[in-house]
Amino acid sequence: MPRVADRQLRTGVSEQLPSSRLLIRSLLLVPPAFNCKIVRVTWARIECGIGCVRCGGGGEGRGVVMEASHGCCSRRRRAGACIKGRGERQSFFSTCSPHKHNKHSPKHTSKTNMPVNDVTHALYVPLHAKAGEHDHVISFLKNGAELAKGEAETTQWYGIQYDDKDEQFAIFDAFHNEHGREEHLHGPVAAALTEASSRLTGEAVPEIDKTTILSSKSALAKPTIGVVVWLKGKPDQIDNLRSFLGKEAEPIVDEEDFMPLWYAIELDEEHKFGIVEFFETEADRQKHLAGKVRATLFEHAARLLQGPPEINRFKVIAASVHV
Question: Locate the ABM domain: which residues (predicted)?
Fold first, then answer.
């Protein structure tokens, strides 16, 4: 039976199931090796989202939300049958090793229902549209999101436009590992960018910044807007800044359940860090900008940073998000 459940998890396709069968099969998704104890099972209305291979998103479904404990951490999984497309969507909310975790274990489960994601590598690609190419850049980003959906190793991909800099765009994408990032850099999206760069931006070779993800969280969402914050660390405070944006920031970020997607990154450029945040509504973004995460960052700014954080708001032109 576990083999059947695993196969259905990989394909993401099943016929719509009666509630009892769906519940049983959801419970089978906890491998016996974990020896997890189920602590809560609840029914919930879930949105089918981008991941449904049958309807392409937009469906609505019923599902179970399960939490199971494993000593040092817990794991949450959600399974549901999509009513619109009869395709099943199942998402890991966190990963949990059957072996004892050490201090370098990458992720912890959020105290809230917002999962912490396991992406570790990213790319940030700034794009400054040439005069007259604004609309063409937007079209390129929309096409890029469609291409990214076909890249199995590209976990999350966003095309964005800065609010106060009409000609300034960017691509931000995240990966589970270096292999996934390299696959993307040799894939169709990168090839299309290289071919179009000179025409759209005037740059013969696009600027591509490789970044390390220090911490992140992601949930099934349809982001429409966001904020990117650039930080320049003091040379003698780099380790402290890295720690602050990593494990120290996670519990504060988790409290903001209205912020579904969040990444703290370190760029290859010396002493440069960033925070990339996504929201579904302007009300959520305003709540965040007046909230604890921003207040905590500014509280530590004088000690950790060379200057004040550079905050840029943006709109999401297109996205491909898997959680």
Answer: 225-314
DSSP structure string for 62-126: EEEEEEEEETTEEEEEEEEEETTT--EEEEES----SSPP-TT------SSS-PPP---EEEEEE
Question: Which amino acid belongs to residue 285?
Answer: R
Question: Which contiguous run of DSSP H or E holds residue 262?
Answer: strand 261-267
pTM above 0.85, yes or no: no
Q: Enter the tokens of residue 241.
A: 């800044």
Per domain, the residue ranges of the chain are: 2-92, 121-321
Q: Which fold has domain 121-321?
A: Alpha-Beta Plaits (3.30.70)
**What three-state secondary structure class fits 276?**
strand
Spell out the per-residue pLDDT of the chain, length 323, in tens. Answer: 333 333 333 333 333 333 444 443 444 443 433 344 333 333 334 344 433 333 444 444 434 333 333 333 333 333 333 333 333 333 333 333 333 333 333 333 333 333 445 899 999 999 999 999 999 999 999 999 999 999 989 999 999 999 998 899 999 999 999 999 999 999 999 999 999 999 999 998 899 999 999 999 988 889 999 999 999 999 999 999 999 999 889 899 999 999 999 999 999 888 999 999 999 999 999 999 999 999 999 999 999 999 999 999 999 999 998 86
